[in-house]
Design brief:
This protein is α+β, with helices and mostly antiparallel strands. It has 3 domains: 66 residues, 2-Layer Sandwich (Uridine Diphospho-n-acetylenolpyruvylglucosamine Reductase, domain 2), CATH 3.30.43; 153 residues, Uridine Diphospho-n-acetylenolpyruvylglucosamine Reductase, domain 3; 104 residues, Uridine Diphospho-n-acetylenolpyruvylglucosamine Reductase, domain 1 (Alpha-Beta Complex), CATH 3.90.78.10. 26% of the residues lie in helices and 26% in strands. The chain is built from 10 helices and 20 strands. Strands 6-7-12-10-11 form a 5-stranded antiparallel sheet. A 4-stranded mixed sheet has the order 1-2-5-3. A 4-stranded antiparallel sheet has the order 13-19-18-17, with helices on one face. A hairpin with a 3-residue loop joins strand 6 and strand 7. The radius of gyration is 20 Å and the shape is globular. The mean pLDDT is 90. This is UDP-N-acetylenolpyruvoylglucosamine reductase. Pathway: Cell wall biogenesis; peptidoglycan biosynthesis. Pfam families: FAD_binding_4, MurB_C. Cell wall formation. It catalyses: UDP-N-acetyl-alpha-D-muramate + NADP(+) = UDP-N-acetyl-3-O-(1-carboxyvinyl)-alpha-D-glucosamine + NADPH + H(+).
Length: 339
């Protein structure tokens, strides 16, 4: 049974804890609810905001339309062979809890993506990634409902056009589909990814003798908790900016002026530079401006200490972008979506 609420505070629906108001809000528990909802004449004319865990958005104003909160649950094995297991997951499942579900059952491929906030349905939209692994590496397909027609469609890995924190759902199909479920192809025999970041160092500190996916998951959780604030304690959306990719020539030029600048070569053509390092060099790390600021341990994270406005965080982000561009000639782009 669908219940559409009016004038709902979205403070508890976004990890920044921004107290914006939705004109209408409805929670959906299955695909049929979505299709029924989209057939309602009054709903068809309203602007819509599809909401998962609210961990990748910044509310800069009230939303004068319908917020659709996706609560579709369920995890089931679709098929398996000697090497792989295919798992289908409801879009409303908590991402980290799903990763732990896989780790506990020895299903490899997602362990490096432990403790990333949000829901399963939002993961392919952003092509979430961490520590050398991205969603696209294990993603097989998803089912989505077209908002205008109510028709279901299957998207394959190729059709999602995954890029760095990017997909077709952030570009030409932005705002056109509601993701209902996602299917992953996971491995019974793991391929370990421990060279990125501090994973190997943390594993050594933990005294891990025999490598396994639970140890990697535990190490990633330990690293993330040491660097990133808990949204329950301090409002944030994790990494606010993407790590920029620049040409090898530009990187070499910057290295002459800043010998300590870190970078990771990709395909011998481009270099990924940590956005957090650039922001820190510009003096933003740990800066506080009233109710908002830049986190003291991770310059990549903008925070709401309580009572901050989305417009204030947006203005801070723009100032950071300008200062980084002025000093390094690099334009930072946001991971977070502005509403």
């Amino acid at each position: 049974m669908l219940t559409i609420q009016s004038n709902v505070s979205l403070k508890s629906y976004n990890t920044f804890g921004i107290d914006a108001t939705a004109r209408y809000l409805v929670e959906v528990d299955n695909d049929e609810d979505i299709q029924t909802l989209l057939q309602l004449p009054d709903v068809q004319t309203l602007p819509k905001l599809i909401l998962g865990g609210g961990s990748n958005l910044l509310l800069t104003q009230d939303f004068n339309g319908l917020v659709v909160k996706i609560n579709i649950k369920g995890i089931r094995t679709v098929k398996e062979d000697q090497e792989n297991v295919w798992v289908r997951v409801g879009a409303g499942e908590n991402w980290h809890e799903f990763v732990l579900y896989c780790v506990e059952r020895g299903l490899a491929g997602l362990e490096n993506l432990s403790l990333i906030p949000g829901t399963v349905g939002a993961a392919p939209m952003q092509n979430i990634g961490a520590y050398g692994v991205e969603i696209k590496d294990t993603f097989e397909r998803l089912e989505a409902v077209h908002i205008l027609t109510g028709q279901k469609r299957v998207f394959t890995n190729e059709e999602c056009r995954f890029g760095y924190r990017d997909s077709v759902f952030k570009n030409e199909l932005k705002g056109e589909y509601i993701i209902c479920n996602v299917q992953f192809k996971l491995q019974k025999t793991p391929v370990f990814h421990v060279s990125y970041g501090d994973i190997q160092k943390t594993l050594d500190q933990m005294g891990v003798k025999e490598l396994n996916i639970k140890a990697i998951s535990d190490a990633v959780i330990k690293i993330r908790r040491s660097k990133l604030p808990d949204p329950v304690e301090i409002g944030n959306a994790g990494s606010f900016f993407k790590n920029p990719e620049i040409s090898v020539m530009q990187y070499e030029h910057l290295k002459l002026m800043y010998p300590e600048i870190p970078g990771y070569v990709i395909n011998n053509e481009v270099v990924k530079v940590p956005a957090g390092w650039l922001i820190e060099q510009c003096g933003w790390k740990g800066k506080r401006f009233g109710s908002i600021g830049v986190h003291a341990r991770q310059a990549l994270v903008l925070v709401n200490y309580g009572g901050g406005k989305g417009t204030e965080i947006k203005q801070l982000a723009e100032k950071i972008q300008s200062s980084v561009e002025e000093q390094f000639g690099i334009r930072l782009h946001t991971e977070v979506n502005f509403i």
